């Protein structure tokens, strides 16, 4: 067993309902912290441990005895017949949650500690501690695969059989009952191997959804600024190229003035918008406006941009 199995079996949710004392929770969290730091077991003394977590030695000794009796942690003392009596001990987590002795009924498992959100339709699907797990109906015979199976298959694609089939099916059914299936599939594709099990996605949906929004709505401000500068420069270069052909195109004085403004202005794409509104007055620049129309920035009379984004400029 390992930390990954502990997380997969919703170990923290089980701990939240284990009715431990403050000192016992401190000991468990300290042991978990050592485990994720690479120390699956560590050696210490009761006096040293009491000093580290801020409790007296007697309370720590009683808490360790209770945790060990409930199989939540594994404690092995040295030879207490030797002197001094303050012997060292080896402490580690019991990763197999099924061996924990909790104040629950015999038929309650770690999966019953998972609290799912409400269903989008139908009755509420809250997996409460006092309730029973819903019976999983048999799959339909023939015809198109059910929606939950699409979710399970999409998640299993490219993975090994790491998750129990029944747990994966239950989690897939819960996901399609509580969230739009297209969004569920999108989340699975976005996170990929970062989601170890479907059960974890179902029980921690809010967390993954917030991370999904953060990662898909990041704005590269420097990149956006550079894109604006490049498009502005393209408008200036196009206007300059038209000015160089003024004799060939036989441009009017008004058309020359418009091109000079665009070639020198600080915000040529905004000025292009105003010029485009009166393009009928510049007939010899019709092709110029047609080519650059996708690059202009519509603005209000105060100069504020009212349409954002980066349209693809013509090749």
Distance between the termini: 58 Å
Number of separate domains? 3
Q: What's the helix-strand series?
A: HHHEHHEEHHHHHHHHHH
Residue windows where pLDDT falls under 50 for at least 5 positions: 113-137, 139-143, 307-315
| Structural classification | mainly alpha
What Rg is obtained from the alpha carbons, in whole angstroms? Answer: 33 Å
Mean pLDDT: 76
Q: Helicity range of the residues?
A: 40-55%
Morphology call: elongated
Q: Order of strands in the sheet with the most strands?
A: 1-3-2
- Outline the biggest β-sheet: 3 strands, antiparallel
Q: Give the percentage of residues in beta strands.
A: under 5%
Provide keyphrases for this structure.
3-stranded antiparallel sheet; 3 strands; about 5% strand; about 50% helix; about 325 residues; disordered C terminus; Arc Repressor Mutant, subunit A; mainly alpha; 15 helices
Describe the structure.
The protein has 315 residues and is mainly alpha-helical. It has three domains: 3-99, Arc Repressor Mutant, subunit A (Orthogonal Bundle), CATH 1.10.10.10; 114-216, no CATH class; 221-295. Helices cover 50% and strands 4% of the residues. It is built from 15 helices and three strands. It has a three-stranded antiparallel β-sheet. The two termini are 58 Å apart. The model is unreliable at 113-137, 139-143 and 307-315 (pLDDT under 50).
